[in-house]
Each structure stands twice: as C-alpha cells, then as structure tokens.
Fold:
Amino acid sequence: VRPLDDKDGKQWVFEIYSEMSEIIKGCKTDSSGTVVQGNHKYYRMSATSAEDRDIWIECIQDSIRDNPFHKIIADKKAAIRRRSGNRPGATVTPPAPAPTAETSSMSSKDDHD
Structure:
C-alpha cells in the first residue's frame, strides 16, 4: 500500500499493489449481482484528508501483515524451497495473491473491464 500524488483531480490518493505479481486477484459483483473474479493491476482509492489516507494505509498494511494467509503462503514457499534443495534450475511457482476487499470509493485497473 502506498500513497500517490493527486490523480485525476482527486486528492489524498493511495493504492494497493503487488511488487511480486502483475495481478491482484479479487472478487466483485457484476450488474446482475453475480460474484465474478477481477484481475486487477492495482486498487486505487482516495481519502477525505491526508490524515484519513494515512490511517487507511496503516490499517490496510496491518491487515495484510496480520493476515494468517500471508504466513501460510510464506511457510509453503519455504517448504518447497527446502524440498527442492534450492538446486539450480528448480523453479517455485508462487501462489496467487490473496483476494482483497473492495471499498465504495475505489477504482481499479482490470484487464477485463
């Protein structure tokens, strides 16, 4: 999660992005209310003030850090590396990123929107 310069006339912008993947998987509802998978490159939001933006960033970062899903994935990756012995040519396919929750004042870059 990182703050951004003002974008498209909006102040106090921040975004959720991934340094490890080009896609952040998430769920959304289509116009009929059916839940569909979204494949976003980022989730970009704007807050009502700089202080509010900073609180959002801190809360989201805490949620990501405290989510047991992150630890489970890290442990699985470590076990795979140990089993492969980190030998040359051994590849580890990382799991898909965890889905993220959407908020009401959010925009995203979706490959399919």
About this structure: The chain has two helices and five strands.
